[in-house]
Amino acid sequence: MAISERVGNAASFLTPSERRVADVVLADPQTVAFGTVARLAEQARTSGPTVVRFAAKLGYQGFAELQSEAQREMADALRPATARIRERPPADVVAQVLAVDVDNVRTTLVAIDPDELAAAVALLADSSRRVFLITGELARGAGILLATQLDLLRADVNVIDGSPVRVARQVSEIEPGDVVVVIEYRRYERWLLETLARARAAGGCVIAFTDRALSPIATGAAHAFVVAAGGVGPFDSLTASIALVHALAAGVAAALQPTATGRLDAVEAAWNVGHELVDDGGLR
C-alpha cells in the first residue's frame, strides 16, 4: 500500500501535530526519503517522537521503514521506459493488459471523493472561468480528449503547448480564477513543472491528474486526482485517465445541459452539411 493511501486511511486518527507531519510527507517526499527524523520534525514544526508515532500509526515499524518505502516509491516513479522495456514480456499480452487496465480504472474511480469530483466539475462548468490544459508528452492523449470534449460543451478551452515562446505567451494570459488542468505522471517534464509554477503564480486554480499523492503535480492543487497508470509494456497506461476524463466531461455536460445542447446541435448540423456534400460528390 502506498504511503499516500496509508495517510488517507489513518487521517481520522492523527493528532494536529501528526497531520502537519502528514502534510510534509505528502508535499515533500524528498525530506522523508533522504532526510532525518529531526529534519522532518523541523519541517512539520513538531518533535521527533511525534514523527515516530506518525510512522507507527501508518503501520510502519518505525521511521526507517517509512523512509525505505518513500525511497522505493521515488525510485519506481523515476524508473524510465528504457528499463521497463527490458523486462520479460508477458506470454499473453492481451490478458495482461485487460487485467492491468481493469484494475487501473477500478482503483482510480473507486478512490474518487464525490465531493472533490463535484467541485472540479463546478470549476470546469463555470463559463466565467477560462480553462487551460497542460500535459506531458506521454499524457497528451488524455489531455487532448478532455480539451476536445470540453470545447464541444463550452467556450474558452485552451491547450498550452508549442514553442517556449508560445507557451510563455499562453501562460501570460492566465488570470486569477482561471482553471488550469494538468495531466502528468512519473518523470514530470521540467518545462511542465516550470509552466505549472507560473500558472499557479498567475492565480490559476489547478486540477491535477497524477500518479501519486506525493507527486509535485498534486502539490498546491485545488483538486488532485490520483490516477493508476500501471502499464504492461514500457509505457504508462492512460486508460484510467481517460475514464476520469469521461467522468468529468459527463458532469460538465449535465451542469451545462441548456447551453451545451445548443452548442452540440450546431456542431451536429455542421457535420450533417459536410456529410451531405460528400454524398453529393461536392467534396473529395
Note down, in words, how this protein is organized:
The chain folds into 2 domains: 3-78, Winged helix-like DNA-binding domain superfamily/Winged helix DNA-binding domain (Arc Repressor Mutant, subunit A, Orthogonal Bundle); 96-267, Rossmann fold (3-Layer(aba) Sandwich), CATH 3.40.50. The chain has 14 helices and 5 strands. It has helices spanning 3-10, 16-27, 29-34, 37-43, 48-57, 63-78, 81-84, 93-110, 114-125, 140-153, 164-172, 190-201, 239-255, 257-279; strands at residues 131-135, 157-159, 179-183, 205-210, 223-226. Strands 2-1-3-4-5 form a 5-stranded parallel β-sheet, sandwiched between helices. The longest helix has 23 residues, at 257-279.
Which structural traits does this protein have?
284 residues; Arc Repressor Mutant, subunit A; 5-stranded parallel sheet
Which helices and strands appear, and what pairs or packs with what?
Layout: H1 3-10, H2 16-27, H3 29-34, H4 37-43, H5 48-57, H6 63-78, H7 81-84, H8 93-110, H9 114-125, E1 131-135, H10 140-153, E2 157-159, H11 164-172, E3 179-183, H12 190-201, E4 205-210, E5 223-226, H13 239-255, H14 257-279
Helix pairs in contact: 2-5, 4-5, 8-13, 9-13, 10-13
CATH homologous superfamily of the largest domain - what is it? Answer: Glucose-6-phosphate isomerase like protein, domain 1
- How much beta, percentage-wise? 5-15%
Report the mean per-residue pLDDT as an integer. 86
Q: How helix-rich are the residues, as a percent range? A: 55-70%
Largest sheet features = 5 strands, parallel
Name the poorly predicted regions: none
Order of helices and strands: HHHHHHHHHEHEHEHEEHH
Report the principal-axis shape: globular
Number of domains: 2
Q: Can you count the helices?
A: 14
Separation, N- and C-terminal Cα atoms: 56 Å
According to CATH, what is the topology of the largest domain?
Rossmann fold
Extended strand count: 5
